[in-house]
Amino acid sequence: YPHALADHNTAIRLDPNDARVYGDRAFTHLSMGNRNLALSDARMAIRLNPNIPQPHRIMSMILHADGNLPDALAALERIPDAKQGVRDALWQYFLRARTGQAGARDRLENEMSRFDVNSWPWAAVSLFLGRSEPDDVLRAASHRHPWIQRLYRCEAEFLVAQYWLTKRQQDMARRHFKAAINGCPAFLREHLLSRQELSRLSN
Q: What share of the chain is helix, strand, coil (3-state, %, to 5)?
């Protein structure tokens, strides 16, 4: 991370108006545990170019980690529709569900018409729509490449944990957050947020 941070700093000195570099540095700061610096860079990136998805996702991660779920949702909703992916729709769904918003499931179902039903993480979409079970999601998180398999399984554990939180099953959520922490590389948002969620559940 220190080498990446040095590269970002150099790039910003060369072009202080490059929103993407601020977004990249925000993610590096977040991975290093520098919450306030990550927040500052994400805000700068959004100020320079609000149409880039990454800074909004980083803002959402920070707010989610702080336990501010309504503002975490609002950050994701600011991503232009044309640049939102299936993961953005999934994350918006469970944030809506956990904050008690009516119509969250119907909205997810409507949004899914824009995405490929044969690709990962479609199994998780089916889970949140009530068409499959948590074990189906874990089985579907497979890939012939071991590294991608690890990333899919990590994401699956996190999403299943979120599913159990929407069902108010905290013991089951704890189990899967722990599995996500153990299986996810430290730089992934699923790892970072699983640690925060588990900490809150333990209080």
A: 75, 0, 25
Q: How far apart are CA 140 and CA 152, in angstroms?
A: 9
Per DSSP, 82 falls in state: G
Tokens standing for residue 74: 């609002």
SS3 state of residue 130: coil
- Compute CA distances 43 → 19, 51, 114, whole Å: 10, 13, 29
Token pair for 13: 């000195």
User: pLDDT tens digits for 34-48?
Assistant: 999 999 999 999 999
Question: For residue 102, which phi and psi values (nearest 5 degrees)?
Answer: -70, 145
Locus of tokens 């994701």:
76
Element (DSSP H or E) covering residue 94:
helix 86-98
Pick from 95, 53, 45: nearest CA to 72:
95
- Supply the angle between the helices 19-31 and 35-48 in degrees, to the nearest 10: 160
Specify whether the CB–CB gap between 69 and 49 falls below 8 A. Answer: no
Tell me the per-residue pLDDT of 134-164, one tens digit each, with 9 for 90 and over: 999 999 999 999 999 999 999 999 999 999 9
The structure's pTM equals 0.85
